[in-house]
Amino acid sequence: MQKIKSLMTRQGLKSPQESMTDLSPVENFRIPSKEELREMREQPVDPQAEQEIIDGIEEVYFSGDSFDMVRHELEKLPPDLNLQELEEYRDKLKSQQAAVSEQVADLILEKQPSYVKELERVTSLQTNLQLAAVICTNARRQLSLAKEGFTGASLGLLANQRRRQLLTGLLKSLRTIKTLQRTDVRLSEMLEEEDYPGAIQLCLECQKAASTFKHYSCISELNSKLQDTLEQIEEQLDVALSKTCKHFDVTHYTKVQLAYTLLGKTQTAMDQLHMHFTQAIHNTVFQVVLGYVELCAGNADTKFQKMQYKDLCTHITPDSYIPCLTDLCKALWEVMLSYHRTMQWHEEHDSEDAAPAPDGGGAAGADESNFGRSYVKKKLEHGLTRIWQDVQLKVKAYLLGTDMSNFKYDDFIFVLDIISRLMQVGVEFCGSKSEVLQESIKRQSVNYFKNYHRTRLEELRMFLENETWELCPVKSNFSIAQLHEFKFMGQSRSPSVSPSRQTSARNPADVSLFEQYYQGGNPFEVQIDNKEDETEDVLASNGYESDELEKNVYQDYDSDSDVPEELKRDYVDEQTGDVPVKSVSRETLRSRKKSDYSLNKVNAPILTNTTLNVIRLVGKYMQMMNILKPIAFDVIHCMSQLFDYYLYAVYTFFGRNDMYESSGLGLISSRLRTTLNRIQESLIDVEAAAESAGGHAPSEERKEKVPSPHLSQLVVLTASGTLYGLAERVVATESLVFLAEQFEFLQPHLDTMMPAVKKPFLQQFYSQTVSTASELRKPIYWMVAAKAIDYEQMLLLMAGVKWDIKEIMSQHNVYVDVLLKEFEQFNKRLGDVSRHVRIPLPVSNVLWEHCIRLANRTLVEGYANVKKCSNEGRALMQLDFQQFLTKLEKLTDIRPIPDKEFVETYIKAYYLTENDMEQFIKNHREYSMKQLTNLVNVCLGSHINKKARQKLLAAIDDIDRPKR
């Protein structure tokens, strides 16, 4: 059987058991190949031998399949193995196997067709049976699924679902009841977390649920308890709303507003909010002021907490006034900023909520919402004015609670700056002009300024009485803008906006304070400029800005090689060493050689310490005026008094002399005289001397006046060696001119500050007072010119000259040489003075003009003293005068020579006829009665009769009569 199976395997056939898994109805059998048949045929073909071999096979090999041939053969082996025997026995077994295989192969070949046919039938049957088994199996499985899915499961699911629904409903009710019972705990947690909308939403939901489950006895009393809880939430919500008044937080305020929206009380919330802001302002300012009062009071038993705020403000000490005011404004700023941000929040949310709904179903609700937003907007806008009014009243009470008249200037300016900044906040907050603040600070400012100005005038009088009128050495490029009092003029900010707040890419004026400090900070934290920023560098090191300029003080400037290079420039900038583009030409330098005595120094401004002090005062006054425009007129009026007093002092010190004022040369113009009289009447306390002697108290009207100053005893104006105090006179007069120039420079700025109604006062001050400063040069320098040359000696010399000569002279008289020597000596003295004080060209011109005028008038007076004079004598007068002019022109650059025609006309009048002389007397009233009478008596007496002479003398008397 084994061999048959082996053969079947070789033929590719399968046993029925192996073919059970194959469902194909027909199996294709493989026929042995030719090679396999050939192999079997190659075996021995002798049938008889083959049969014998087969018959020699033991019977046991033909037994059942369980026969183990190998075991059988192994057991047959002898104990002693012989290789040759084993090989022979093996060959025998091989021959038996080959014979059996041959016979089997023959039998298979013989029975193969029928075997194949039968095997096909068996295979087909087997396949059909397998299909039937599969169909039966599937059918049973489907029947089982149908039973489970459509019968038992469905009915079970229905029953379970019904039970589940009942249990779910019960569980929901149980959970709701449990939640309701734990509501208090959760609400407390949400309130601690400041989740007010969630707490209100939860409370409202609990109320609704409680009404739904009221049939349960366990929650029958929950409704009343929830109502109490809701009222408690509203109280806490009101407290939370009040917190936004000082420190606005978007998230916090959003929660609060959402909570009020859920309660349906948005309008009520807005009313409450304004009440809280009002209360916050009151509480804030009271606590700030109370803190400082208690701090400064120490252990005093006074119960400040029970005082009214207005009374509390009167207990602030001067030392704590500014810190308290600063903290007060900081705290009020926080409140206003919170209100400003509150308005912004509502504007942003109104624009978001105003978007139209997708459907028109909620028209009624939309109308109600629009009405609510409109109410809130109007309420907020109206609240702006109310809150700012409260702020003003609180600050006003603080400002008026202390007398600031004795404050330091810087402290008072700082107070003004703070209030000015606060008024700027008011403009940006609600567009208010802050009339309350302006009025209160104006009252304090006027009070302070009057006291301050009175003190400054007294100080100025003290300065002037101790002033020795020495030059204050400043640099050549000195400007009042370099003084820290005038730094504010160089800043492009608004007077009420601090420089430290100009930090924006756009124009700082376009950035409001609320935008600038939106994220933090405070506009009242800015302090006044440090003193380090106020340092100045305006003084020259030693009065000379170049060592070279100190040398060669007064040399002959005819040769350019002798002139230092520095002197060929206008000036050299100390800081950079740059030379101006425009330089002094050689011709100009030569023209200055005798008239300008300033070539030894750079043309630095001439001013004194007192002048500098007045300029600083003007800067301080302008700072105050710049910050507080309502008192601009008072400030400018006081500034004008500073200038008036300085001008009056210079005049009384150096220019007042009745003898020379009546000289007839117009030394003091009518405008200057009017100005001096006005100053004396309005500003000078002429009764001060008598009062000091009598000891009477000054009247109220005289409190606004200042005693006339007295010249310091250290200033000597009578020494001829110093040209009668010329250096002091130059310093005093030119410092006044410099001061006037600075006032001219400031006029445009003052004009913008002055109220329109008061502008005529400013114009009158400039046209009648400031512009007259340079006119003081004439009377002041006249004093020097009148004494610098000995005119009396010249009159004596002229009196000794004989004028009734018969021959024309070719030599001039000695008095001309003496007079010219006087002028040369005067020129030398001017040079000596210029070594110490620069004598500007206008000053030297005025001095020379005065001296020449006096000399010419002295000549006319000398000619008028002549008793007898011939035609040759009159020619000698002309010769003397021409000699004087020729030599004088070499000493001075003044052209034409002053009063030259005055002398020449008088000399030529000798040749006039009677009729011409009468007309001459009428036209030339500049000559004195004595001079005209001498012309008639001496000069014309030789060729007119007595009657004509009487007629001319009567004409002279008629001219002189109106003067009497």
From TrEMBL:
GO molecular function: SNARE binding
Coiled coil: 216-243
GO cellular component, one term: EARP complex
Sequence ranges assigned to domain Vacuolar protein sorting-associated protein 54 N-terminal in this UniProt record: 54-345
Annotated stretches, region: Disordered: 1-27, 348-367
Keyword match Transport: yes
InterPro entries: Syndetin_C (IPR019514), VPS50 (IPR040047), VPS54_N (IPR019515)
Occurrences of domain Syndetin C-terminal (ranges): 723-957
Keywords tagged on the record: Coiled coil, Protein transport, Transport
UniProt feature, compositional bias: Polar residues: 8-22
Keyword Protein transport carried by entry: yes
GO biological process, alphabetically ordered: endocytic recycling; protein transport; retrograde transport, endosome to Golgi
Listed name of the protein: Syndetin
